[in-house]
Every structure is written in structure tokens, then in C-alpha cells.
Amino acid sequence: EGWLWQFPRVEIGETLTFSLQARINPSSVGSIVVSNQLQVFYAQEDTPFLSDDPNTDPFDATRFTVANESNLRITKSVRSLEENNRFNPGSRVEYTIIVSNDGLGNSAVLRLIDSLSPRLQNASMASNNPQIQIEQVANQIQATLPSLNSGSQIEFTLIATLDAALNPGDEVLNQADIQTLEEQVLLQSDDP
Fold it and tell me: What are the average pLDDT values for consecutive 10-residue runs of the chain, which has 192 residues?
């Protein structure tokens, strides 16, 4: 597929400039290489001249890879599991953590780290994806997330008991992080 431009005689030293704007098909996102080569034909030659040497990859100015960018988001909320919906010492609480990908591309494999406050006891976590393995290491609950497809999400539920020795007005802080497998923090569930 292409376009054909015809133009009259070009004088020696004269410059012609061609500009092409195109929209990449959104379904092409991924490791897709887009190449665009201009060929110039003229009456005295059977072989066209190329706009550049196609063998210069990866430094070819007319070749590029479509970006595969994920856009991750993490939200975390908490509610009391008590009948009175209050957060009292010894109350059971439920945190809901949702990790979603609103980008055009799939994410890399990631790790969810939930660092537990010492004021949370008997904590356990589950996911709506049964393939995710969750483990507790000291005061952290960790889960490895598979590549998260564009437009999808994974939900986690953390249930814990508030320390019975808490005093009225005590705060219980609980933060979740999304990290790369190399432990680089990408996102936090809230601003600490």
C-alpha cells in the first residue's frame, strides 16, 4: 500500500519536501516495527532511488517500534467488618486493593507488596485470580502479578484484626506498593 506523487521536472539544486502524517492502528501496539521508505523514479532509470538505506537498522530514521505502554493504577480502600461499622480495638477490617492497567499495552510481571502495620494482626490476603500466589514474609504480604493485559484488573482482599491494645484516636497506616521484580517501586496505594 502506498501513495504515488507525480511532479514535473526538478531543476538541479532544487529541493522537494514531502510530508506524511499517519495514525497508527491501535491494534498494532506491541513489538511492531513500522517501516516507511520513499522511492523516487525518473524517466531515464528503471531502478528507483530509495530515501535511505534500509540496511542501516536499528538506526534507520524511517523505522520505529510502536510503544507498548501500560498505565497502571492502584487503589486501596478499607471498611469495618463489624455490625456497627466502627473501627474499634479488636475489630475485624477488610482492605480492598485493585491493580488495573488502563494503558494500551500489557504490563510486565509485577509484585504487590503490602507492608503491614504492627497494629494489624492475623492478616490474610486473597485474590480474585486463583493463579496468583500470595505469601507472608515477616510484616509484608507479597504477591507476584502476571502480565496485566490492557483494560484488565486484579483485586485483592486483605482481612485483619485491629490490635486490641489500641487507644481511641490511634491511627493505623497500611500502604501497598507495586514494584518491578527488581524491587523498583512504581506505584503506591496512597501518599504516605
Answer: 73 81 60 70 74 63 69 92 94 95 83 92 92 89 88 94 94 88 75 58
Q: Is the pTM of this model over 0.85?
A: no
> What are the DSSP calls for 175-190, one per residue?
EEEEEETT--EEEESS
Grid cell of 25 as nine digits: 492502528
Residue 37 carries which side chain, given as an amino acid letter?
Q
Q: d(Cα 106, Cα 117) in Å, to the nearest integer?
A: 32
Q: What angle do CA 79, 132, 191 make, to 5 degrees?
A: 45
On whether the CB atoms of residues 30 and 105 are closer than 8 A, the answer is yes
d(CA 121, CA 134): 17
